[in-house]
Amino acid sequence: MRIDEYQRFDALGLAQLVDDGDVTPGELLEVARRQAETVNGRINAVVRFMDAEADRRVTQELTGPFAGVPFLIKDLAQDYAGLPTSCGSRSLAQIPAQQHATVVQRWLDAGLVIVGKTNTPEFGAKGVTESELFGPARNPWDLDRTPGGSSGGSAAAVAAGIVAVAGANDGGGSIRIPAACCGLVGLKPGRGLVPAGPAVGEDMHGAAVHGVVSRSVRDTAAMLDVLAGGERSGPYLPAVPAATFRSQVGVDPGRLRIGVCMSSAINSSPHPQARAAVEAAAELLADLGHTVEILDKPPVDDQALAEDFLLAWFAYLAWEVDDAKRRSGCGEEGFEFDTRLMAALGRSYNSVEYVDAVMRRHEHARRLSSYFDSYDLLMTPTLADLAPRIGSLDTHRSLRLAGEVLLRTGTAGLLRHSALTDRIIHDNLSWVPYTQLANVTGRPALSLPLHRTADGLPMGVQFTAQLGGEAMLVRLAAQLESAAPWADRRPVIPPVS
């Protein structure tokens, strides 16, 4: 099979070829490897190849909706027994997982052939994928730019045609941001629908969830069918619809009322291309018969939501650092400067402040629920700016110098009372101020690749739904995919010189 033939099919299409006997899982594995050999040196998407595991896998009898299809998992929270899950950190790079994560086992049960693990920032703590352990992943559409984060390696691999779909997860936008940067479909399921176990009951109090990035709506829907549903050790028994998500592809979504918001207290001037993406999507939606209304302001106080999100994020990161120290026996040298600084900020909050931030999530959820009394969906840009250039979000020299001193003296928590904290918030969220809402409130949200800049750089449009709105998102996404197809777009990646 030629690479151009391989890339014409989505994952379900490849599975159909296997089922029909037109190609074998071994042949698909070989073409995926050839493409990885061609492009991975430029994009640094795959950081661990699982050759022995994949070779054994294709000799087995594979069943399931994705039987024989090559697949990549993210090197964060998607444990594969016997191999390290580094989480992008030196501290965990040599510690093998004791058992498969539930989602990994479900992917295996679906017949997928896992060929490797993808690049991620340390502990998934950034919207760009530039860890010191693995180096930066690069956007196949512009190698000088980030593919986003924290599922940047997965998104880059799918956009570059190594695999048709790849594992991802999302604690603040980490599925949707890379999907928008790389021209892919990225669905963050609602809280509790997809299990996080068996190692943990839920990540970040349920704000972080597993999913995929893909090129087609039907792949995303079928993958949600594979992943959805509780587990015996989990904290919830989620309500899974009687009809499959895949069956919703092609179903008329009806006439939806969609509110459109581009304003944000965190970024008052979104890039013109972010506005253009939403304006074009609004026009397309109106042409399809939907009611589109411009909102004067966000349905929640996004500045307060961002502050609560980051307080909880920093505190959770402090726990992750301490947990990694316990597991590995390493000291501070096992972690990047930015991670140590954010963890120090997390430790500077007392327990009541942390619980306050977590409890205020319910206030944000109530306000968003009131919005859905009048609207079916909320539409925003996925990104407020173009995908940043590699290294452009590196910590400012002034903050690094000050932070090094404060970390050495154990007083880094003082930064929370300085303007430097505001700079951290601005640098991390100003280009992605729209995605945290769905994580904090637990609602499903979807990024679709509905826009390109004049230079061909993808820009996503995000739709957020109410609880249980995944099927509605799939129906609308499939309608938009049919009206404005994107699957035939391919980046041209220059060869290694």
Question: Can you describe what's shown?
Answer:
There is one protein chain. This protein is of the alpha+beta class and 497 residues long. 39% of the residues lie in helices and 13% in strands. It has 16 helices and 13 strands. The protein has helices at 3-6, 11-20, 25-43, 51-57, 102-109, 152-159, 176-182, 217-227, 272-287, 302-328, 337-347, 351-371, 397-409, 419-429, 436-441, 470-483; strands at 46-49, 70-74, 113-118, 130-131, 135-136, 165-170, 185-188, 209-214, 257-260, 291-294, 377-381, 445-452, 458-465. The strands form three sheets. Strands 6-8-7-12-13-11-9-10 form an eight-stranded mixed beta sheet, sandwiched between helices. Strands 1-3-2 form a three-stranded mixed beta sheet. It has a two-stranded antiparallel sheet with strand order 4-5. Strand 4 and strand 5 form a beta hairpin. The longest helix has 27 residues, at 302-328. The chain is globular and about 65 Å long.
Strand content: 5-15%
Helix fraction by DSSP (H/I, runs of at least 4): 25-40%
Find the count of extended strands (DSSP E, 2+ residues): 13
Shape: globular
Q: What is the succession of H and E elements?
A: HHHEHEHEEEHEHEEHEHEHHHEHHHEEH
Within the largest sheet, what's the order of strands?
Answer: 6-8-7-12-13-11-9-10
| Cα separation of the termini | 26 Å
Q: Report the sheet with the most strands, covering strand number, pairing sense and barrel closure.
A: 8 strands, mixed
By secondary-structure content and strand pairing, the structural class works out as: alpha+beta
What is the gyration radius calculated from CA atoms? Answer: 21 Å
Average pLDDT reading: 96
Q: pLDDT below 50 for ≥5 consecutive residues: which ranges?
A: none
Number of helices: 16
